[in-house]
Amino acid sequence: MDPLAAALKVAASGLGAQSERLRVVSENLANAQSTGDAPGAEPYRRKTITFAAELDRVTGGSMVEVNRIGRDDGAFPVQFMPGHEAADEKGYVKMPNVNVLIEMADMSEANRSYEANLQVIKQARELISLTIDLMRSQS
Predict the structure, then answer these.
(1) Residue partners of 83: CB distance under 8 A and separation at least 6
(2) For residues 2 and 129, what is the distance between their CA atoms, to the nearest angstrom?
(3) pLDDT tens digits for range 72-121
(4) How far is residue 91's CA from residue 74's CA, in Å, rounded to a whole number?
């Protein structure tokens, strides 16, 4: 496989991984205030994502793939909200272990990585097009 096609394949794997990362971050942000529905019930638990490099035998390139989508085992912060349906006998409600600032930073990083992979694809496609044009002009 030629190097430009290999670059396209590697960048496409990066796009897929970052797209999945953005989905997980979006889900965390959407549930940042999702509490339990009964006294003492657990709220939404933050999701995490890990990646793994996998060698593509055809291209020899290192592809990125989602290794695992897990759960953050961190403690739940509590808020005093005595009238809430999920409040315990002391009036405290367990809140999701989602830190909006961390999620926004993750989203920004994933977005930059996505854009970088997209630029690689654009450049590789342009080089392939230029190569085809050169081959046509030589015939």
Answers:
(1) none
(2) 14
(3) 999 999 999 999 999 999 999 999 999 999 999 999 999 999 999 999 99
(4) 22
Tell which residue, 40, 28, 26, 35, has the closest CA to residue 98: 28
**Across-strand partners of 52?**
65
pLDDT at 1 over 70: no
CB atoms within 10 A of CB 123: 14
Task: Write the CA distances from 24 to 37, 48, 88, integer angstroms.
Answer: 23, 7, 29
Nearby residues of 19 by Cβ (< 8 Å), 6 or more positions away = 114
Of the two residues 32 and 131, the one the predictor is more confident about is 32
Q: Can you list the alpha helix ranges (DSSP code H) found in the chain?
A: 3-30, 100-138
Helix, strand, coil percentages (3-state) for the chain, rounded to 5, are 50, 20, 35
Q: What would the mean pLDDT of 58-84 be, rounded to a whole number?
A: 93
Residues linked to residue 102 through DSSP beta bridges, in sequence order: none
Q: Which tens digit of pLDDT belongs to each residue from 73-85?
A: 999 999 999 999 9
Give the C-alpha distances (Å, rounded to integers) separating 67 from 19, 114, 121.
14, 18, 23
